[in-house]
Amino acid sequence: MKKGYALLNDPFLNKGTAFTETEREQYGLVGILPPTVQSLEEQASQVYANVEKKPNVTEKRHYLMNIFSRNRTLFFRVFKEHIAEFMPIVYDPGIAESIRGYSEFFVTPQNAAYLSIVHPEQMETAIRNAAEGRDIDLIVVTDAEAILGIGDWGTNGVSISVGKLMVYTAAAGLDPARVLPVVLDAGTNRESLLQDPLYLGLHEKRVTGTAYDDFVDRFVALVEGMFPHLYLHFEDFGRSHAAKILNRYVDRYPVFNDDIEGTGIISLAGILGALRISGEALKDQTYLCFGAGTAGCGIAHRIYQEMLDQGLTEKEARQKFYLVDRQGLLFEDMDDLTPEQKPFARKRSEFADASHLTTLEAAVKVIHPTILVGTSTQSGAFTETIVKEMASHTKRPIIFPLSNPTELAEARASDLIAWTEGRALVATGIPSKPVEYKGVTYEIGQANNALIYPGLGLGVIASGAKLLTDRMISVAAHSIGGIVDPTKPGAAVLPPVTQLDRFSETVAAAVAAEAKKEGLNRNEVNDPDACIKAYKWEPQYK
Ligand SMILES: NC(=O)c1ccc[n+]([C@@H]2O[C@H](COP(=O)([O-])OP(=O)(O)OC[C@H]3O[C@@H](n4cnc5c(N)ncnc54)[C@H](O)[C@@H]3O)[C@@H](O)[C@H]2O)c1
Ligand SMILES: O=C(O)C[C@H](O)C(=O)O
Ligand SMILES: [Mn+2]
């Protein structure tokens, strides 16, 4: 048992001023804390009041991360209570700025593991040091090549691993002492970091090819060996690695790629919610993906699977999809398509003049999409002209500008509602305020994978699922339907973040039940709800 300053400096055990007089005597704390003993409730309301006084997101985040680094229980007590208010501060979009300034403002490593491609022999030691004897159920790992839409940030990207894990705990009650944030430092191609003497990562260009694959392989084999029930979450890998890595391990271990699968699930859930409002069927939709990278293709794949589940043949389903990327509409004769784009690429012969379909605007004019999803990192790409053109061919256009952070979104919710006179069914990647338009209040759902990965992870971990299967992913997407009342004018297509805590349990129970159905559970799942509730960690002092 730790004592004295070692105890105060352990964020998983520290209670600060809440150590009782008996505990202070027992653990060598007499005289090294101010004399008044506070309750967790008193500490939490003090923290909240202080956050409210801070003038901007940067200072709020800085203050909260300080609490996080000192005392996890207190941090999560406050975060959980104010989840909708704090998400944009500690997570996206607030996290983007702190990733850019990570090296410059570095104070503490926040219990993360930093793994370097030039020292593979240190990998095991690094993980052991970071875990400090704790059993780990969940790792979020990034190589930071494609952080949100802001690109390659090398070691600075460790904050996304820390941030995603914070949401797991606040939303789904994953025990913060049983998680480990990891960054794989394989170099960076961002010239400004390479030139920056303050940059704390490897000052080398990214390593690729076999050396990179071996580095990832070594990492996965190592952590799977060290933590036998581990659920491994991959975050913000680059377009050329994300799907490849997922495919390499998906049939062997319970692994998850958030940008592909998490975004796929939440977008499907949003589209199902939108169709519940419009009363239309998925099989009648025409889907246009703008920005066919990791997330864009992940979403298209999920919607495609749903169409198959609803009875369309592969050929029928494929006919519903169009992908637009940098080249314009993607055609099968292009030699630079990714493996994920290929199944959805079209034939030029389908169009009278395919050669001019090189922009989103030209594609929308010819294709008449009913669903438009943006994962392009192109700020403002859904222009008034494009949106009005789309809306002139469909009653309830479904439009999801999903790029993060705020400044990269393809459109603002308020513009989409106004340009379509309230007809658009909108969800955004970042939180959006409700939109007032002609006497109706339009609630805007947040199609961010943070609304789904915590519940999904809780379901996998609590059931001890050996794998994360396509069916488990599908039930997760379906489980959050029915929370929103589609008959209410201006209803959102997704449930609000204020209820994240509650619907994460719903998602988790559905996933655990499916794991059992497939015979993949290693823990008992007799009653899925009870199994989930029993697993959850609550922010209380022990
Ligand atoms: N809301 C969410 O939950 C969520 C989840 C994942 C990703 N995202 C966002 O989606 C965006 C993309 O992320 P990603 O991981 O898929 O990145 P990515 O690099 O894999 O994909 C981006 C794609 O956009 C394409 N693109 C770039 N410029 C373009 C242009 N001018 N016209 C058309 N296409 C263009 C790229 O070629 C690439 O294929 C980011 O902003 C990210 O924040 C949101
Ligand atoms: O992190 C987010 O906000 C969502 C997503 O994973 C992203 O990469 O943008
Ligand atoms: Mn991401």
Automatic annotation (TrEMBL):
Binding positions for (S)-malate per the UniProt entry: 404, 448
Cofactor(s) demanded: Mn(2+); Mg(2+)
Ligand binding (a divalent metal cation): 235-236, 259
Keyword rRNA-binding attributed: no
Gene Ontology molecular function terms on file: malic enzyme activity; malolactic enzyme activity; metal ion binding; NAD binding; oxidoreductase activity, acting on the CH-OH group of donors, NAD or NADP as acceptor
Domain Malic enzyme N-terminal per the UniProt entry, residue ranges: 68-250
SUPFAM superfamilies attached to this UniProt entry: Aminoacid dehydrogenase-like, N-terminal domain, NAD(P)-binding Rossmann-fold domains
Gene3D superfamilies listed in its UniProt record: Malic enzyme, N-terminal domain, NAD(P)-binding Rossmann-like Domain
Location of the active site: 91, 164
Textual note on the cofactor: Divalent metal cations. Prefers magnesium or manganese.
Keyword Translocase among record annotations: no
UniProt domain Malic enzyme NAD-binding: residue ranges: 260-516
Organism domain of life: Bacteria
GO biological process: malate metabolic process; malolactic fermentation
Gene Ontology CC annotations of this record: cytosol
Alphabetized SMART domains for the sequence: malic (SM01274), Malic_M (SM00919)
Keywords: Metal-binding, NAD
Family membership noted in the UniProt record: Belongs to the malic enzymes family.
Name of this chain's protein: Malolactic enzyme
Origin organism lineage: Bacteria, Bacillati, Bacillota, Negativicutes, Acidaminococcales
Gene: sfcA
